[in-house]
Write a structure and sequence with these properties.
single chain
Amino acid sequence: MLDTVTSYNPGLNVRVANHQLVTVVATGTVTVFVIGRRVTITAGVRRVSKVRVPMSLSNIYVVPQIAARLFSCRWGFDRDNIGTKLDADLCLTLPTGEIVPFIERGMHYAINVLPDAGAADALYAGVDTLDDGEADR
């Protein structure tokens, strides 16, 4: 679901793997909540904490005929300042400094997106930082 709709029926199509063109029914922006990792260094001590963090995305295409939600690494970097690391780190880097680790699913990568802001608030009410006790890489 979009937070802001910038265009209904924008006259755009997307070509899918079988070379079929499918219609974009709307474009807009969305903010999703993800579980990221924040690295802090205090008095020389490095701490990695899990945090609930918003990830804002612009120029989202709504294409009902595509079941999966897809992310463009190039668009994320060029427009939303979200970096993609496909090296040993395997993560997104957000403009706020948090990292969002990828989940490997066969030949694909995914990220954990919380269902919606309301669910994120209910799940983590009153909790800003969740210490996962893991050392960073």
